[in-house]
Amino acid sequence: MSDSNVKFFSDPVVQLIQHMGSDLSVIQAARVSTNNDFGVFTEGGSFAGHSGMEWSEKDKGLIRYLLREKHGTPFEHNSITFRVEAPIFVFREFHRHRVGFSYNEMSGRYTKLEPEFYIPSPERPLINVGTSSKPEMAPADEYIDHATITLLKESYEQAWTHYESLLNLGIANEVARAVLPVGIKSKMYVTANLRAWMNFLSLRTHDENAAHVSRPQYEIELVARKIEHELGILFPLSMQYFNEFKRVSP
Fold this sequence. Notes:
The chain is an alpha+beta fold. The chain has one domain: Gyrase A, domain 2 (2-Layer Sandwich). The chain is built from eight helices and eight strands, in the order E-E-H-H-E-H-E-E-E-E-H-H-E-H-H-H. The strands form three sheets. A four-stranded antiparallel β-sheet has the order 2-3-8-4. Strands 1-5 form a two-stranded parallel ribbon. Strand 6 and strand 7 form a beta hairpin. Helix 1 packs across helix 2 (57-68) and helix 7 crosses helix 8 (236-244). The termini are far apart. Mean pLDDT is 92; it is low at 40-49.
């Protein structure tokens, strides 16, 4: 069976939609506690008296101190929104992050879903040679790799055929979607502040130098690394010291 309408993808999409704040807003939020902030936001979004482009050693030292001593609230006075496209099983892990996060996901109740399904890339290790609580993944041999992709594609195509058949019978979207697997692509907007994003990254990326080494699922780490890249551009000092202090959210 082959359904020409069905498409396959391996790489998730992460798109920065909007953001508010910067390393400078972290600094100002911290300094106001000692009545030592130096100005107000201008119409363009920077603080009067500071371009936000050149950092003094005191600026750098303050952000470094906040992260080292885990003073977290100054990292909450900002907002970053991403549009993410990934398989539903990634979103089910993503949505476990609740504190500081807001989500809006494409609804399979209100609209017909799209025939796009996840298949592992050749780089994705498929065999768990560790344990369920401490997974360690290894590549499959060529035969198993080919069999896996073939079975996934056949399953997806059959599920999509059944989904469309149910819809053609007049079955409601919210019921017909029950035949679809968690490998189908979904889309969402997700918004959080930098403190929440740092916590997300500490759990959803693998780094041997981290204070607490996490072993996330490969697919959610692909999403997390794309998010981290964008955060590194928006908050370069905060992200530099986040890494320096072993990826622990303040």
